[in-house]
Automatic annotation (TrEMBL):
GO biological process: methylation
Gene3D superfamilies: Vaccinia Virus protein VP39
Region of interest: Disordered: 65-90
Name of the protein this chain belongs to: Putative methyltransferase
Organism of this sequence: viral metagenome
PROSITE patterns: N6_MTASE
Domain DNA methylase N-4/N-6, chain residue ranges per copy: 189-359
InterPro entries membership: DNA_methylase_N4/N6, DNA_methylase_N6_adenine_CS, RM_Methyltransferase, SAM-dependent_MTases_sf
Recorded GO MF terms: DNA binding; N-methyltransferase activity
Transferase among keywords: yes
Keyword Methyltransferase: yes
Record keywords, A-Z: Methyltransferase, Transferase
Family statement: Belongs to the N(4)/N(6)-methyltransferase family.
Amino acid sequence: MTTALMQLDIARTALIHAKSLQEIKQIIDIAKAAELYAKEAGLARENVEYATEIKIEAERKLGQTLMETPKSDGSSRGRTSKLGGKRFVPPNSPKTLKELGISKNLSSRSQKLACMNDDEFFNAKERIIKSSSLGGTNKILKEIKSQEKKDVQKKLYTEASKTYKPNTDIQIHNVDFREYAKKIEDNSIDLILTDPPYPKEFLPLWKDLAVVAERILKPGKFLIAYSGQLYLNEIFTYFKDAGLEYYWLAGLWHKGSTAIVNARNVINEMKPILIYCKPPLKKNQNTFIDMFISEKKNKDLHEWGQNIEVIELLIEKFSAPNDLIFEPFAGSGTTLTASKTLKRKCIGCETDKEMIDIIRGRVQ
């Protein structure tokens, strides 16, 4: 066993008795060195996890100690004064965080850990330990904060849904779209705007969507669907076989956001937006630029959520006020919410009951 790993047991015991910032920082450094060595040497996973666990526990104690330490005044930091026009440090003054090697990042991160109750810290620690990234702590804390934000937002919408009153203009149905579509009359829908799931196992839904769209759309009206890239060949075939006519392929650029598609070794920055028309094909009256820019994905309420601003733009370009829009995969209700804002009627279907309550809260 190397010196770095041998020191871990000593460091864990020392952490129990450590009181000063300097002592705790030294333990963090020992654990970080052992963690890095275990990874680079390709040692068993439990060695890495043991080092990470001690590091996280030490960081939490550092945060607790920082929060208990009186803050110095902001100008002189409680350490320096002027004597004869010269600045000097009084003897026996405490070291600054910078002198102790405690960065602003470490200070902030450790205090976030310190603010957690024991259950929250245990769960966060387990996630951090399982993270293979050296920057795993910051990433996990960011994810936890993001999840807390999502939970608060969902709770607010769920509470608002309790006062929801059914509206004939904005309808929400907890049902599979294929079942509900049986109630929709032929040639009655002005626009279908949707974001179906992309994985291969959901391809049958795309095939059924094409068949339903060809029946319920008014002649000359549009089906607009967000899509992934992997199975476009199959989707194009479904739409063509159903009798829909290809109109255009637009794109959604996720500005500042990328995803790695391992199946094709591609770094993906854009999402196709398929635009098909029910015959006879007619030129859309509104001119549009075929690359839409999304500054931020809306994943707070649903893992497949989309930016509402782009949805609103598509609605404005491909429909008119009082038109009837159908959304087969409502998700968190972005299309329904945008339709209400733009004075369109909309029918949405969603199989997830939790999402139904959120949608009702959003359109309330």
